[in-house]
Amino acid sequence: MNKMHKEHTLTKNQQIIFDLIDKSSEPLKAYSILYNVQKKGIKAPLQVYRALDKLVEIGKIHKIESRNAFIACHNSSCQVAKATAFSICEICEKVTEISSAGLSKYLANFKDKDGMKYSKYNLEFFGLCKKCR
Amino acid sequence: MNKMHKEHTLTKNQQIIFDLIDKSSEPLKAYSILYNVQKKGIKAPLQVYRALDKLVEIGKIHKIESRNAFIACHNSSCQVAKATAFSICEICEKVTEISSAGLSKYLANFKDKDGMKYSKYNLEFFGLCKKCR
DNA sequence: ATATTAATGTTATATTATTACACAGTGTTA
DNA sequence: TAACACTGTGTAATAATATAACATTAATAT
After folding, report:
1. What residues contact residue B49 under an 8 Å CB cut-off, 6+ apart?
2. Mind listing the pLDDT tens digit for each residue in B35-83?
3. Paired residues of B62 in beta bridges
4. How many CA atoms lie within 13 A of B13 on its CB side?
């Protein structure tokens, strides 16, 4: 194994849960994940939440806060869950990760009037997707 | 016709709960609100959630999604909970509503590459406040 | 090897939020 | 003045989301 390129090798539980989320076309909720992985030996909520926490921490998945649900990261530019933006359709609940250099740059450089410096942000846009419009 | 901000007369439960949140220096959680208003006759979670839902809907309070907590709106420019932005200190958990014309304008005009039009957004910045830095 | 850190397994419990149903007040319609 | 729609209330029960506590095992570093 080449260790110079630091890659997070997922553990068994993390891999099982990541695979499920990654294959899903929609955000998954923790207990829905639990039901889906019980046949693979993951029996308790805590096993799911621990894997989710770790996956979020290393940026493989993101949590959609307004929906308490998780999606895989498909945006190579969002490093380690530090800066996330999503669009959410209020009818069909389709969630898409937004990948916009302009937006990232604007938000990364944003400073409020107290001069507070931000290490992280999460932005959720709501509206109607093309199909639902 | 220029429709002015409609004045909502709060009902008894809504007023009790709004007053509590409005006086608070920090975001309040639903069950913490419940414990605090039980002496005023509000006994059940649902009574709290119903008032919270309405207060959010009319823009008197906002929900901090990442914290499941509620704060009063102190930003006259954020009409009816459509466009909200907050800064959250990851140490002391102080939450401040951000009121920046530039930011509002940028986000209100943001269009993603699918041309999705957004009716609403919520942005949460995380970092360290002045005191905790 | 052994110390240390990270992950696991398990039970129990805490926290957050909604469903379902009965009823009361208000204003509008007819 | 009823019939209706609409909004809010009260209450009990339950669903959905998340964490605490503790014992154990696996992986990594020195």
Report:
1. B30
2. 999 999 999 999 999 999 999 999 999 999 999 999 999 876 555 668 9
3. B71
4. 18
Tell me the count of A-B CB pairs closer than 8 A. 94
Q: Which of A57, A65, A109 to mutate to test the interface with B (most CBs of B within 10 A)?
A: A65
What's the token pair of residue B75?
Answer: 């930003």
Beta strands in B3-132 (DSSP E): 61-64, 69-72, 83-89, 95-97, 117-128
* Cβ-defined contact of A117 to B127 (cutoff 8 Å): yes
Average pLDDT of every residue of chain A: 90
Q: Which residue is closest to B131 within chain A, CA to CA?
A: A116
> Structure tokens of A99?
């990948």
Q: Closest residue of B to A129, CA-based?
A: B116
Q: Tell me the chain B residues in contact with residue A125 when contact means C-beta distances shorter than 8 Å.
A: 110, 112, 116, 118, 120-121
Give the number of other CB atoms < 10 A from CB of residue A68.
Answer: 13
Domains parsed from chain B with CATH numbers? 12-127 (1.10.10.10)
Which nucleotides along chain D are within 7 A of a protein C-beta? 8-14, 16-21, 28
- In this prediction, residue B30 has a pLDDT band, given cuts at 50, 70 and 90, of very high
Length of chain B: 133
**Contact (Cβ atoms closer than 8 angstroms) between residue A59 and residue A81:** yes
Residue A121's Cβ-side half-sphere holds a number of Cα atoms within 13 Å equal to 24
